[in-house]
Every structure is written in structure tokens, then in C-alpha cells.
Amino acid sequence: MSEQGERSRGHPLIRLPIVGSPIGQGSGGVCCPMFSGPERLMVGSGEFQFINCTASCTDPKRIVLETALNKTLLEHKTQWKLFKVYNISKDEELLCSSTCGGKQETKVFHITVFYPPKQVLLTLSPTSVVVGTLFTIECRVPAVGPLECLTVTLLRGTDILCNQTFVGTALSPQDAVVTHNTTAHREHGLYNFSCEALMDLRSRGGGLIHRVSDPQRLEVKEPVPNNPMGTIITIVVVLPLLLVTFVLLYRYWLWTRHN
Length: 259
Description:
Layout: H1 3-9, E1 39-44, E2 47-54, E3 63-66, E4 71-76, E5 80-88, E6 92-100, E7 103-114, E8 121-125, E9 128-130, E10 134-144, E11 150-156, E12 159-165, E13 174-183, E14 192-200, E15 208-212, E16 216-217, E17 219-221, H2 228-258
Parallel strand pairs: 1-7, 9-17
Antiparallel strand pairs: 2-5, 3-6, 4-5, 6-7, 8-10, 10-13, 11-12, 11-14, 14-15, 14-16
């Protein structure tokens, strides 16, 4: 299914890299060493990650992935092993090690847990307005982190009303809220309002995660016109009643004084 199809349904798109892919062969048939330094990875809370441990020699004595997390060996060859690490709920360090010619080689994978946007909640307040009056559009993305990787966009149809990229370095999950106040126009009732959340983790070794709210429709009403004739009729009817009431009260007051 295409990425566009996934986005239209509002499901997140999460790309998890396979770290340290199986080694290739050079022109001379010599494998490429993969232990070049630490690797930093972003993994969604509670998700999994593929880790490939690769030796730099053709006949390693052992290849091991050291971690306290649950892991499964998916595939292996002489020079590499592919693992799947499960239920990652906090920041972790994983260690790949191998022994080549009596010398130990290691590579550290630093895993940072992030909290992807799982819900995007859009609210129109009020949902029914008169042309020319103010209404509020609020978009809430619960429990996301890091916020500095998140951009929230408010849309009317395909037109962007508001676009906000958050700042902050906290990795713990927080609610992201964007509020936009605007004046109701007749054409507002012709379009759906929606909210998009985009988390961009590419600079941290992750991918793009996209989520869209359910669409909301605003009911726009025409203002009630003034009715001068109705005002005149009201005055003509009410005024005599008030006069009669006043006269009756006055006569009653006079009667009580003489009795």
C-alpha cells in the first residue's frame, strides 16, 4: 500500500532501520568491517528493533549481542547475526561483540525511546456559529516526545490555517496543544477541518511518523435580520396594556385612601 494511502487513513508511518545490515563483499571478496563506532537509534516506546552484529573477519570465533532485553536470533551466517530486540520501554545500550584472530571487537548501540503520536484530537468550539463571530480550533496530541521533533498543522480543506513546530529537549511524553482563533465566514461551512501531526526523527537516526485527526465540519449560520415591523407591533400592543395597568393601579390606590 502506498504512503499516501496509509496517511489518508490516519495510521502512523514508522520506518525502523535494520541496523548494521549484513556485510557485503568487496572486489577482492574481503568483508567490510562494521565496528566503526557507536550507533544511535530511536525506537518507539514498547516497540522492537532489528540489530545486526557483524564481524570484520571471515572466521570469527563468536558473535554475541549483549542485552538484558528479550531478543530472538532471526538469521545468521558465518560473519553476522541478525537479532530482533523486543519491548523496548526505556533508553538502553546494546553491545555487539565478536572475536577475530584472538582479538575482541565491539560496537555499542545507544537506543533512545521516543513516544510517537498515536492520537490527534481536533475540537471546534462552538460547532455552530453565526457568520462574523469567532470560533476556536484546538488540536491536541497526547503523550508525545520529544516535542522538538513534532510539527502540528491545522487545515481547512487543503489550506493551512496554522503550522507550529515545538521546541524543548525533554524526552518524556507530553501533550502537544495548538489553538487557533478565527472569524467564521460562509465558506467555512463547505470544508472539513483537520489536524496533522508529523514527527521527524531522521536527524536522530529514526524516520517520519505521520498521523491525521478525524475531520470535523463547522455549521455556519446566517445572522438573523432586524425586523422593524415586529418592533412596531410590539410597541403598539404592549404600550396600551401598560397604560391600562397604570390607570387601574392608580384608581385602586385612590379607593384605598378613601376607605
